[in-house]
Design brief:
14% helix; 15 strands
């Protein structure tokens, strides 16, 4: 294999059998349970990297997401914490931590965009009259979210606006000597969103302390809302908006 062959094929690891295909990445029947809660403002400020800024109430969105049909990534589930922020006057969201049960989206998410993904076992399913999301790290249950199933249909436009807004990630890639080679703030968006339904209902969330899944460092002080969404969408590639090493 000559150098031109290496350059032409080098889009992901490993070279001869990449962990994921070239995008775009389309998700069909993607299902969200999003529980928004109020947390400790000082702890929230300590975890959001500049130049992102907090604005208004100290809120966190805890997400459980089922992805039964996703291009190249297959059938999987993920969960994590997303923080409402602003960047250069734009309102959006910062992904603080994510846990999922499938290797290709872990590898692709980290390498391409900088999603903060780790291996764990999340679930999301309807149990009789309740939508139930769980997250286990090894044998330990670190998150349990519940919501009344489809209690009230929501107006579609605010949900679409929230799905189409900007999102930011802190992408870190080390050099071979262990020092950071890439340390960037990345912006990405969803596109071609087909919203199939959105509902609200009473919601509850419990977080458990864990050394390697420290979700409870942003404690639940008050539940603000619970939202259930089903949509088809495409995960677009990203743009570097700030280089911490420049």
């Amino acid at each position: 294999m000559n150098e031109d062959d290496v350059r032409s094929r080098a889009f992901a690891m490993p070279l001869t059998s990449p962990a994921y295909p070239v995008g775009p990445y389309r998700f069909v029947n993607r299902e969200f349970l999003i529980i928004t809660y109020r947390t400790d403002p000082a702890k929230l400020r300590a975890l959001v990297p500049e130049p992102l800024q907090l604005e208004g109430d100290p809120l966190v969105k805890f997400e459980f997401i089922r992805m039964p049909d996703s291009t190249g990534f297959g059938d999987y589930t993920e969960s994590g914490q997303v923080i409402p922020v602003t960047f250069q006057g734009k309102k959006g969201a910062y992904s603080h931590c994510m846990f999922l049960d499938d290797h290709p989206p872990i590898a692709g998410g980290r390498e391409l965009w900088g999603f903060p993904k780790k291996l764990a076992k999340p679930t999301l399913k309807a149990e009789i009259d309740t939508l139930v999301g769980t997250l286990d790290y090894g044998p330990v249950r670190v998150a349990l979210g519940t919501m009344g199933y489809k209690h009230k249909a929501l107006e579609p436009q605010p949900i679409l606006d929230s799905l189409l807004g900007p999102n930011w990630l802190l992408k870190i890639m080390p050099h071979v000597d262990g020092t950071p080679r890439i340390c960037e703030l990345v912006e990405y968006r969803l596109k071609d969103v087909h919203l199939k339904g959105a509902w609200s209902g009473p919601a509850a969330l419990t977080l458990q302390s864990h050394a390697l899944a420290p979700l409870n460092e942003l404690p639940v002080l008050e539940i603000v809302s619970g939202v259930h969404i089903i949509a088809d969408l495409t995960l677009d590639l990203g743009t570097v908006v700030h280089d911490y090493l420049a």
